[in-house]
Write a sequence for this structure.
């Protein structure tokens, strides 16, 4: 198989759809790092970048599964606002314990997703219509629940969902390194993550080689994973010099690994892709397509609820306008990351890259003082270019 690709250039050409957006993210980061005189990669801005985009990344994981299965969910922004408002009412007005309120909010999110998934999966009502109705219903429900007013502040424990940081349990190494602050625990966790990625990648390549499926050139494999490891260690070092790893970054990392495992290594994941590729063929092969579509929407409701809790915790208040237009950013992130409108195509890594492309662009343009009007135009053009790129690559491969 290795001979089929030959050089690294040939391999990249054959897999441009997979690596094009990653190269685009790197190019965008280099551009804004230069244009902002280094502000983009400063520890405080990196921390803000993760905090500002955490809920988009989390929802993109669920949206990918929905889109891969051949559907779409327009209600996620309204669900974010509704669940955040519900949590505020339970915590601030009803004085429920934090754990009980969080569990109840997540359960409500699952029920919302399941209710919408039921109509899509079992009644064959187009997901666009069902979730458009959900978007309107839960936006109105949020206004009713909060009485048109903001509710807060939240208990300190609840705020840790978004604004907390992993504590440093190791001795203070800052004086030894000549730094004002250094969170050694954060740096060691970054090293452990980089080492884990290298080990898993090496094992995966070994398994592929054993079955004659290692078509990735060895030099490219080493270079790609080496750069990823170096980037993780470098970012961990930068964060360690500020306040360490945000709690929400750990949450994102765990969810990304979990959903990568589900999509790449489980029967459920492969069957969801089969549904998006050809639902009739999948059904004829014995796959319970209705149940998987139903579960995809229930999962989306859960992740939207989690994002709603994190967003409310970050603002320290629930507002009637929370989550407005979030669905557009989430859907754009998934399509920019390489998912196909027709379903059956897309990766978790691609969705995360797409989310960070949107996040870095928002952050960089804000630092440069570009107005929100121009920001919307630029993001729309980037989305259009990503879809055109996807269509072009499809036409070349057929």
């Amino acid at each position: 198989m290795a001979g089929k690709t030959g050089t690294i250039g040939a391999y990249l050409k054959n897999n441009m759809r997979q690596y094009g957006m990653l190269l685009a993210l790197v190019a965008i980061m280099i551009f804004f790092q230069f244009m902002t005189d280094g502000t983009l990669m400063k520890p405080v801005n990196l921390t803000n970048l993760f905090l500002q985009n955490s809920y988009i990344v989390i929802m993109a994981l669920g949206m990918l599964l929905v889109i891969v299965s051949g559907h779409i969910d327009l209600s996620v922004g309204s669900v974010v606002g509704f669940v955040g408002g519900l949590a505020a009412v339970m915590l601030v007005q009803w004085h429920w314990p934090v754990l009980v309120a969080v569990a109840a909010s997540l359960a409500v999110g699952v029920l919302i997703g399941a209710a919408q998934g039921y109509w899509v999966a079992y009644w064959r009502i187009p997901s666009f219509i069902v979730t458009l109705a959900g978007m309107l219903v839960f936006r109105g429900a949020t206004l009713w629940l909060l009485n048109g007013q903001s509710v807060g502040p939240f208990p300190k424990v609840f705020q840790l969902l978004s604004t907390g940081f992993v504590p440093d349990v190791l001795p203070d190494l800052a004086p030894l390194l000549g730094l004002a602050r250094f969170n050694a625990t954060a740096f060691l966790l970054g090293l452990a993550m980089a080492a884990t990625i290298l080990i898993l990648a090496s094992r995966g390549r070994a398994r592929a080689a054993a079955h004659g499926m290692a078509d990735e050139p060895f030099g490219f494999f080493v270079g790609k994973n080496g750069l990823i490891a170096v980037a993780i260690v470098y970012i961990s070092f930068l964060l360690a010099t500020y306040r360490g790893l945000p709690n929400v970054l750990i949450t994102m990392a765990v969810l990304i690994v979990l959903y990568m495992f589900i999509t790449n290594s489980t029967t459920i994941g492969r069957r969801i892709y089969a549904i998006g590729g050809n639902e009739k063929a999948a059904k004829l092969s014995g796959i319970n397509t209705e149940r998987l579509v139903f579960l995809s929407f229930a999962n989306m409701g859960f992740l939207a609820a989690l994002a709603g809790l994190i967003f409310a915790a970050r603002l320290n208040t629930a507002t009637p306008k929370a989550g407005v237009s979030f669905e557009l950013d989430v859907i754009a992130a998934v399509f920019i990351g390489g998912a196909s409108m027709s379903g059956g195509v897309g990766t978790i890594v691609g969705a995360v890259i797409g989310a960070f492309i949107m996040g870095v662009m928002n952050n960089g343009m804000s630092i440069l003082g570009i107005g929100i009007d121009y920001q919307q135009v630029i993001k729309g053009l980037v989305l259009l270019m990503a879809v055109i790129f996807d269509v072009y690559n499809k036409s070349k491969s057929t």
About this structure: The CA atoms of residues 97 and 163 lie 19 Å apart. The mean pLDDT is 89. The two ends are 21 Å apart (CA to CA). DSSP finds 18 helices and no strands in the chain.
